[in-house]
Amino acid sequence: MLPGDFQLQKYPRKKLALFGVLSIVGVFILGGTVLALVFVISSWLGRPVVFGFNDGPTQPIAFPHTVHVQDLELDCTFCHRNVTLGAAATIPAVGLCMTCHKTIGDGLPEVEKLRTVFEEGQPIDWIRVHRVPDHVQFAHEPHVRFFSERGGISPSATCSTCHGDVGSMVVVEQVRSLKMGDCVDCHRDNGAPTDCTTCHY
Ligand code: HEC
Ligand code: HEC
Ligand code: HEC
Ligand code: HEC
Ligand code: HEC
């Protein structure tokens, strides 16, 4: 054999190995870049996709805000009746849903579920999306009143400040942290009290 033959065989094999290593490194770099981009873009939009807030839970009945708020133009306070009155906004009882769904929605599986629940006289165990810990007190009424008076807007137009555009959500998700820092920042910006006992018992 000629020495040249050896070289011809050895050289491509080395190159091949190098190419293999480089492509593995490349895949990692690409993967890392994509992940970093998703992070930057999602935090830019204020809606973390990775390690962020949970997606909305799967509810016992798939109640779409879209249909009721956007299509039917129902006011938030039509269902969340206590939101302008006290601490909890409250979720309506099945009876309120049935004022329409006794007759509306024949054949829709989720509406049939609703009717069964109503006939059995059971409440619906809706899964909570927003919840502050027990040692924190939050009340809707002062917030809704403050922002609607200051902005000259309806009570229902204030909800998006903390909940985002619920009317466009098929499944309600949390879009704002509503952690202590978030609460305190907004209180400071609006001249609301920031002493510990405002929010802690
Ligand atoms: C037809 C009745 C109805 C109307 C109108 C309605 N909601 Fe709801 N809402 C519900 C029901 C039922 C739930 C519980 C199921 C769920 O989370 O989707 C709910 C849940 C929510 C939640 C999540 C509660 C939690 O667990 O943290 C928020 C926030 C909310 N609604 C805000 C709004 C806002 C803002 C509007 C007006 C733009 C509105 N809703 C209009 C019935 C209604
Ligand atoms: C003012 C009347 C009204 C009230 C009150 C109302 N709905 Fe509806 N709902 C409708 C209409 C109209 C539709 C659309 C029906 C259709 O597409 O044929 C609908 C659709 C639905 C659907 C089916 C969505 C789909 O396409 O699968 C569900 C589930 C539902 N409503 C649940 C509820 C629940 C739960 C409540 C009470 C918290 C409620 N609705 C209160 C009028 C109402
Ligand atoms: C200043 C921020 C803020 C505003 C404005 C606000 N919410 Fe909330 N909302 C919260 C927080 C925080 C919670 C969790 C409260 C808890 O765990 O006790 C919550 C919980 C809820 C819940 C579920 C628990 C409950 O109270 O029944 C519903 C429904 C709700 N909000 C609807 C509304 C509606 C409708 C509006 C507008 C009329 C509104 N919110 C305005 C911060 C806000
Ligand atoms: C978007 C701004 C904003 C956010 C976010 C916010 N608050 Fe407030 N909060 C206010 C304002 C403004 C007032 C004062 C209302 C008034 O003057 O009656 C207030 C009032 C209160 C009050 C009543 C104080 C009193 O004695 O009158 C409590 C309690 C409270 N907030 C708790 C919270 C908690 C807990 C959170 C977070 C989970 C929170 N707030 C998030 C703006 C905010
Ligand atoms: C505007 C409302 C607000 C005020 C004012 C406030 N907090 Fe909080 N705090 C919260 C909320 C909401 C949480 C729960 C969410 C979280 O962990 O951030 C919390 C959580 C906490 C926790 C528990 C943290 C943990 O990891 O579980 C401590 C401790 C605490 N607060 C202490 C204080 C002290 C001390 C002050 C006064 C200097 C204060 N807070 C003032 C809203 C408030």
What's the SSE blueprint?
Blueprint: H1 3-44, H2 65-71, H3 76-79, H4 94-101, H5 109-119, H6 140-151, H7 160-163, H8 180-189, H9 196-199
Helix pairs in contact: 4-5
One heme C binds at residues 132-133, 136, 179-180, 183-184, 187, 194, 196, 198-200.
> How many β strands by DSSP?
0
What Rg do the Cα atoms give? 27 Å
From N to C, what is the helix and strand string? Answer: HHHHHHHHH
- Beta-strand percentage? under 5%
Main beta sheet: none
Structure annotation, total helices: 9
- What's the average pLDDT? 86
Distance between the termini: 90 Å
Q: Domains counted in the coordinates: how many?
A: 2
* Fraction in helix: 40-55%
Q: Would you write up a description of this structure?
A:
Helix 4 (about 95-100) crosses helix 5. It is built from nine helices and no strands. It is mainly α and about 200 residues long. Mean pLDDT is about 85; it is low at about 40-50. It folds into two domains: about 15-55, no CATH class; about 65-90 and about 125-200, no CATH class. The structure holds heme C (5 copies). One heme C binds near residues 59, 65, 78 and 91.
Offer a quick outline of the entry:
The chain has 201 residues and is mostly helical.
Write out key terms for the chains shown.
extended, 201 residues, 0% strand, mainly alpha, binds heme C
